Amino acid sequence: SHLLFPGCELTANTKSYTFQVDEEDDSDHILALSVVCLTDGAKDECNVVEVVGRNHENQEIAVPVANLKLSCQPLLSLDNFKLQPPVTFRLAAGSGPVHLTGWHRIVHREDASFEEDDDLSEEEEEEEELAPIMPAKK
């Protein structure tokens, strides 16, 4: 099941945003980025957005995913670039505002071997609500 990622906005005052899930949760989570775009109030400067996560050796890595400039590339489609939470989005250069949107998918491990069922019970639907998102440390 897909849930809308509420998105986030990176600015000069809020340079990072972390999307994380409950580690006690026995489900697999996928976060997919669809679009990164400059919004009202953006200056004509380079705005570099990085994704900060962990590699297979559990070392923190930062990868630039967008370099936006109002006059030449104010929007970038990331074609549902898939990430595994927890993940932090960081404005590495520029002052924004930059808005990120996408979706969040939860796959219950006990259900993974079965076909996806569109008729979820109310209890299953409640389990699939987004986990609270904590602000990133500056």
TrEMBL record:
One of the record's GO cellular component terms: nucleoplasm
SUPFAM superfamilies (UniProt xref): Nucleoplasmin-like core domain (SSF69203)
Keyword check for Phosphoprotein: yes
Gene Ontology MF terms: chromatin binding; histone binding; RNA binding
Domain of life, source organism: Eukaryota
Boundaries of every Nucleoplasmin core domain copy: 7-105
Region Disordered: start-end pairs: 113-138
Positions with biased composition (Acidic residues): 113-130
Keyword Iron applies: no
UniProt subcellular location: Nucleus, Nucleolus
Family membership noted in the UniProt record: Belongs to the nucleoplasmin family.
Protein name, as recorded: Nucleoplasmin-3
Underlying gene: Npm3
